[in-house]
Design goal:
By secondary structure, this protein is an all-alpha fold. It has a single domain, classed as Mitochondrial carrier fold, CATH 1.50.40.10. It has 11 helices and 4 strands, in the order ααααααααββαββαα. It has a two-stranded antiparallel sheet. α2 packs antiparallel against α11 and α9 packs across α11. The chain is globular and about 60 Å long. This is Mitochondrial adenine nucleotide transporter ADNT1. InterPro entries: MCP (IPR002067), MCP_dom_sf (IPR023395), MCP_transmembrane (IPR018108). It is found in: Mitochondrion inner membrane.
Length: 345
Amino acid sequence: MASETKVVNLAEEAKLAREGVTTPSYAFTTICKSLVAGGVAGGVSRTAVAPLERLKILLQVQNPHSIKYNGTIQGLKYIWRTEGFRGLFKGNGTNCARIVPNSAVKFFSYEQASKGILHLYRKQTGNEDAQLTPLLRLGAGACAGIIAMSATYPMDMVRGRITVQTEKSPYQYRGMFHALSTVLREEGPRALYKGWLPSVIGVIPYVGLNFAVYESLKDWLIKSNPLGLVQDSELSVTTRLACGAAAGTIGQTVAYPLDVIRRRMQMVGWNHAASVVAGDGRGKVPLEYTGMVDAFRKTVRYEGFGALYKGLVPNSVKVVPSIAIAFVTYEVVKDILGVEIRISD
């Protein structure tokens, strides 16, 4: 008698996965769902704070001798008055085109890096029940951040330029692909990676701390259950949002100076940007940077140490809800899609 074909549905495959037996189709489906969840999390979180994201970049690169944006509320009002509602979201389409794949790759890379690091850690200690420590989570988050940043950096570079341009700019990028082709033609392929080094250095503490603080806070709350926040071994959405907010605040404060330097290096070579200028005794001249260290030195020399934190206030207001929304959206979407494993698992 011919052997019967065994049909394994998704529910049975999920059961097998929990028991340690993973079929190829289940593994592929899980990967796709994880990437979709990460992409949705990135798009939702960034769109929610797009006006603050644009203001942050404008504050970072504005001419210190011609101040237009003088704070969060004033800056948002100025954009609304001069460019209207659409001005608040300028560059957001390009930002989402970058952040959706970036977020998808970042969350997925963190999951894979966590599994690999945990496997090595258990093998080294000989303890099969060992769990990730905050330091190991920091390492996994750093790996995820570097991979995601490198994969999508050209889009981040042109997104910065599109965000900075105004209606009065002599030259206009019409969109992400037009900006990419223009930069390639006029400045060469290396221009697409201007500021990559400070970005990678900055992403290590930023993304690393985001994941480490978020996951460690959740673990601590579940184990200690202060104020009765845990119900049925689960944290509420509000509590998880608070964990994400704390993670985002710590990560962005540590890495913010590198973000300022990255953005300024990205503007070098673009004659129509609102270039940062400095007095050199002979007048005001546009600043040019030979590298990351030179950019740090000139920024502090001409504008003071505080210039490294230009735009920190709107960035803080933006990062707190953005990171929180991203983490919680990721977990909620994975629950909706029926993925069994969360990032903390």
